[in-house]
User: What shape does this take?
Amino acid sequence: QKEVEQDPGPLSVPEGAIVSLNCTYSNSAFQYFMWYRQYSRKGPELLMYTYSSGNKEDGRFTAQVDKSSKYISLFIRDSQPSDSATYLCAMTRPNAGGTSYGKLTFGQGTILTVHP
Amino acid sequence: GAVVSQHPSRVICKSGTSVKIECRSLDFQATTMFWYRQFPKQSLMLMATSNEGSKATYEQGVEKDKFLINHASLTLSTLTVTSAHPEDSSFYICSATLAGVLDTQYFGPGTRLTVL
Assistant: This one.
């Protein structure tokens, strides 16, 4: 079983739709959670970073973490064609000092297409 | 800010040759850099963690003699794929973290390696 599971999709939605992307994880040691966006043949770009359960909002993006269920989500409101990309969840655990261990474990990535 | 570059962006080489990939943090000092590889439609797999001035730490299953990593300065890390073979063909991506802050990784644009 992979430590981080993410539905690879592909997911196709019309412009303006609300998109929900999800990941589950099995390692309860994970405490820091990120969402990255990766355009084709480019490096990942950090979208959201959270370290506590609950919601975090940034513009059209909302990251949600439920540590009790080991489940994280990314919501995209008013989706645009420019949002078409692969979305990767990533997570890491704290080191002995309590800060991020640094080594990221990625989900497989969900391919999203937003069509006009 | 926090821009990471990689060079070259794409390389094609013959089997048996060595290829060097550079990763640079352009506007910040990166005490830690990470090297990943990504196969088509798959997620990023961490290969090694590189700390400035010390030996890299390789993930299980990654041959350190084949993938030589050097992190000689706070802005430059290099990955050398020695005696490359077709199975080494992949997308190699580096990331860098701000000094003392491992929470957030900034990714380079990646290098597409094709070994004939």
